[in-house]
């Protein structure tokens, strides 16, 4: 079997470092190059912590893809860079696997249309942790029976977007299974703005940001005399890598846009 040729954007980041190790340690993956916004002309192995990663660093993805054979781009950067990279990769016929969160609905729509035009797969996964994907699926199932639900997502304090992509995706999946409903007392008033969290079709989403946390989410349902809590915790970033591997393998066979690993996990 030919190796899957991979470019990683954001290799020095917390997720990017794990992804570099995943690709280097997976027999049927080949790391071809990386894209950073600095260190043009250097090799990745010149940087601390990347012994053995003898691939060039580019600061521009288009330039990288002009000079590099690649099947898949893994992006783990920022929402602006991630969208630019996904667009550029597709324009070169390279399949994006994007873990970067914070894309708008318009961004997702644009990528879906481009994938159709190019007949190339693209996987956007707000959460690569397979346990988190199951948490979302179980929550969608529970939402059919419990109409009142709040999401509490908890992340490290360096996270840029709130609520998390996973929280939004969970709310979207539950919205498919439940009638929209204004929750809480109809006359409730916030005496401190934001106390009741963000509102998604009546479901409330609360974002906690603290050092020490990685990525955690609790979906809490309530009805007369009972509550049901579904919780997932990622304790380190290695927890995301089995999902990255699955996404890379799957995107090679896909000609479609996929948003969320739940759509490729049966
Ligand atoms: P991080 O540690 O801040 O890493 C981001 C990296 O991207 C940094 O090295 C940054 O460099 C680099 N970068 C910024 N702009 C760039 C550009 N234009 N081109 C290339 N590299 C660029 O963040 P992280 O924790 O790894 O998270 C990265 C993204 O993944 C975030 O959107 C986060 O929410 C998401 N995430 C997703 C999952 C999932 O399962 N899908 C899990 C965790 C995190 P500088 O530091 O020099 O700016």
From TrEMBL:
Pathway annotation from the record: Amino-acid biosynthesis; L-lysine biosynthesis via DAP pathway; (S)-tetrahydrodipicolinate from L-aspartate: step 4/4
Binding sites annotated in the UniProt record for NAD(+): 10-15, 36, 99-101, 125-128
Domain Dihydrodipicolinate reductase N-terminal, first and last residues per copy: 4-128
GO cellular component: cytosol
Record-annotated Dihydrodipicolinate reductase C-terminal domain positions: 131-265
Binding-site residues, NADP(+): 42
Places the protein is found: Cytoplasm
Molecular-function GO term, any one: oxidoreductase activity, acting on CH or CH2 groups, NAD or NADP as acceptor
Catalytic activity: (S)-2,3,4,5-tetrahydrodipicolinate + NAD(+) + H2O = (2S,4S)-4-hydroxy-2,3,4,5-tetrahydrodipicolinate + NADH + H(+); (S)-2,3,4,5-tetrahydrodipicolinate + NADP(+) + H2O = (2S,4S)-4-hydroxy-2,3,4,5-tetrahydrodipicolinate + NADPH + H(+)
Subunit text: Homotetramer.
Family membership: Belongs to the DapB family.
Protein name, UniProt field: 4-hydroxy-tetrahydrodipicolinate reductase
């Amino acid at each position: 079997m030919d190796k899957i040729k991979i470019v990683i954007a954001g290799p020095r980041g917390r997720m990017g470092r794990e992804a570099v190790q995943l690709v280097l340690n997976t027999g049927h993956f080949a790391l071809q190059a990386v894209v950073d916004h600095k260190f043009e002309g250097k090799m990745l192995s010149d940087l601390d912590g990347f012994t053995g990663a003898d691939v060039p660093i580019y600061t521009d993805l288009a330039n990288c893809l002009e000079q590099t054979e690649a099947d898949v781009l893994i992006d783990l950067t920022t929402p602006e860079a991630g969208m630019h990279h996904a667009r550029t990769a597709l324009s070169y016929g390279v399949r994006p696997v994007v873990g970067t969160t914070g894309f708008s609905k318009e961004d997702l729509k644009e990528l879906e249309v481009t994938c159709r035009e190019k007949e190339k797969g693209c996987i956007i996964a707000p959460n690569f942790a397979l346990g988190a994907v199951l948490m979302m699926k179980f929550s969608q199932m529970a939402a059919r029976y419990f109409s009142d639900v709040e999401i509490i997502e908890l992340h490290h304090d360096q996270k840029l977007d709130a609520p998390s992509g996973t929280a939004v995706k969970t709310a979207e999946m539950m919205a498919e299974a439940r009638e929209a409903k204004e929750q809480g007392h109809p006359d409730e008033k916030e005496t401190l703005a934001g106390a009741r969290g963000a509102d998604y079709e009546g479901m409330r989403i609360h974002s906690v940001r603290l050092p020490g946390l990685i990525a955690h989410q609790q979906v809490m349902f309530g009805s007369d005399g009972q509550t049901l809590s579904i919780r997932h915790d990622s304790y380190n970033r290695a927890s995301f890598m089995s999902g990255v591997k699955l996404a890379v393998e799957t995107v090679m066979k896909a000609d479609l846009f996929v948003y969320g690993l739940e759509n490729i996990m049966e």
